[in-house]
Amino acid sequence: MSIRRTLLLFFLLMGLAPATILTGLAFYQAREALQLEITRNLRNEASALMLEVDRMMFERVLQVHTWSHLELMQDVRVGDVDKRLSHLLFDLDMHYEGVYKSLTCSNRQGMVVAASDASLVGKQIEGLGVWLTAPLAHGETRLSPLKLDLESGKASIEMEAAIHDPQKKENVGKLHAWFDWTEIFDLLDHPNQTTVNASPASLAVLLDEQGRIIAASKPLRERGLLLSNALASWRTTVGNDAVITNEEHLLGYGELLAGSAIGHGYQDFPGFGWTVQVYHPTAIAFAPVHRMGYAFLLLLVLTSAAAVALSLLIARRIARPIVQLKELTRNFMQKQHLAEPINIGQGEVGELTESFQQMIRDLEQSRDNLVRASKLAVVGEMAATMAHEVRTPLGIMRSSAQILQRETALSETGKEMLGFILSENDRLNKLISSLLDCARPRPPNFNLHGLHGIARKVQDLLGAQASRKNIRLACEFEAVNDQLYCDDEQILQVLLNLVLNAIQILEPAGEVALRTFSTGQGLVLNVDDNGPGIPENVRQKVFDPFFTQRDGGIGLGLTVVQQILRAHGAEITVCTSGRSRGTRFHIIFPRIEITS
Predict the structure, then answer these.
(1) Model confidence, pTM
(2) Does 337 reside within a domain?
(3) Same domain for 240 and 158
(4) Domain annotation covers residue 375
(5) Domains in the chain, number
(6) Of 377, 411, 437, which residue sits at a domain end?
(7) Same structural domain for residues 362 and 397?
């Protein structure tokens, strides 16, 4: 596995694993906290509803019992001949509008003698049986079973209390009150009116002691659960477990959160042992947590994307120097020379890369020096041989040719041939001198000289030759301090060689310029021309012995130039001229300080 891939996997693991774990823990903790809070609210809600149901039943039972003991109720014995009792019942019905469907009084035979609704007078009361008995301080109130109208969804409970004659100590009739059970339905339909933290999505049911559903929220009534025992097993289960699986979907939902409360009566009223249970679907209860989970998931995805991008970037930045160093090593092994240098930056890998590149440069320099030394050794052998074996015959030939030139009878053709012999003799002597200069350069005689003066001397010496080709030879001096410790003859030889090469290669109307300026490195001399230039791929070879691109050249002039400058501690490079496409020889002499 590559370093980049290893680093990428490591960074992804370190970045995503904690984020995933923290996201999962946050979601779990939020879900648990929300479930605990909702369950507590459901229990409070159930307790508040149960207390309200007990209070409401206590008021209705107490009202019926109290009304049955009114003195006016004794008019039942005389059949309510003056209708005072009927007026009382009517007034009570109007006062408690919506609470009771009707109020009636019947005699011992069960015939209605007074009623809030006059149409009921004279009718026989049908006995519905006794469902519950509410004991009170001075008697009791009995409740008949719940009467449900499936078509209208209305329900009522008949409450009856005996009308007692205190003088004869006997019951003379009964007071009947049909309590509208819709009051209980409304209470369960709007639990938030009873409890501050109640949820509008809560479902509530009222169970009797046998677990029968005697009241429920509207969605449950619409499912036909009233008066059924569908939730009888939940009456005790909910109290022990806050979560109901509800696989049968009895209430139209799956898993539910639940709260339960058993009635214990109100004031002196002991209650009927009913139970209120409040349910909240987990699909609705945990919706905020799920939304938060989706937000966490989105955040995790974004974090993952950012982690991947950052991991790629970091892995690439860490692995890139090593990959570049590997490619550099591979290229060097294949091509045996340093390709484009790379700059990796700081750090251990950067230092290693720079050291490796410097080692390659040193190896290349050593190889070049070895090749150069080999060539110079050949030059030295050739120079020694030619100086000993060639110059003597050349001297004899030159002397003989000069003597022959004095002959008066020599034809014009003969004189021309003698001129060729002398010119070629001079050329061979110059070649031998160049070989000797290259093979055994004279040590420089250092003295303080001005570079500008040497450059002007070059301009004077080569000015006529430049004018013959219509070439402009200029000097532009910007350096304030042009003093050098040098051998002025050798520096003159360097400049003559460079300028003469430029004059020979330039076309008419060309230009050669000698420019000087100072930098932090030292005194700089540029020899610029506007000629065809030197191709970039051969610039590093122009100082090699015997390398030339000019017809008739032997390739030793620039080699001698470089040797002289190195002996002076100077460096020379070749590049494109700054003002044209021509050639620039850039020479940097070491800085010296002139003290007064």
Answers:
(1) 0.53
(2) no
(3) no
(4) yes
(5) 5
(6) 437
(7) yes
Range of the domain at 513: 444-590
Is 326 contained in some domain?
A: yes
**Mind spelling out the 3-state secondary structure of 526-578?**
EEEECCCCCCHHHHHHCCCCCCCCCCCCCCCHHHHHHHHHHHCCCEEEEEECC
Helices 348-389 and 391-405, interaxial angle, to 10°?
Answer: 50
Q: Which residue has the tokens 């209305």?
A: 154
H helix intervals, 506-568: 557-567
Between CA 592 and CA 247 the distance in angstroms is 100
Domain shared by 520 and 539, yes or no: yes
User: Is the CB of residue 363 less than 8 Å from the CB of residue 371?
Assistant: no
Q: Please report whether residue 340 resides in a domain.
A: no
Are 72 and 89 in contact, with CB atoms under 8 Å apart?
A: no
180, two tokens: 């509208």
Q: How far apart are CA 121 and CA 141, in angstroms?
A: 22
Do residue 138 and residue 242 come from a single domain? no
**507 vs 194, higher pLDDT:** 507
Contact 197, 45 (CB under 8 A): yes
Residue 194's contacts (CB-CB under 8 Å, 6 or more residues apart) are 45, 48, 49, 52, 187
The pLDDT of residue 276: 92
**Which phi and psi (to 5°) does residue 531 adopt?**
-80, -160
Q: Yes or no: say if 527 and 498 are a contact pair by the CB < 8 Å rule.
A: yes
Instruction: Please choose, from the candidates 380, 382, 399, 386, the residue with its C-alpha nearest in 3D space to the C-alpha of residue 428.
Output: 386
Same domain, 204 and 142: no
**Mean pLDDT of the 394-408 span:** 75
Domain match, 63 and 155 both? yes
CATH number at residue 579: 3.30.565.10
3-state helix vs strand vs coil in the chain, percent to 5: 50, 20, 30
Q: How confident is the model at residue 422 (pLDDT cuts 50, 70, 90)?
A: confident
Structure tokens of 122?
A: 């004279």
> What contacts 23, CB < 8 A, 6 or more positions away?
296, 297, 299, 300
Side chain identity, residue 495 = L
Choosing from 270, 288, 306, the residue where a domain stops is 288
Measure the CA–CA gap between 394 and 380, rounded to whole angstroms. 19
| Whole-number average pLDDT of the chain | 80
Q: Do 317 and 422 have their domain in common?
A: no
Each residue's pLDDT tens digit, 42-89 = 888 889 999 999 999 999 999 999 999 898 998 998 888 889 999 999
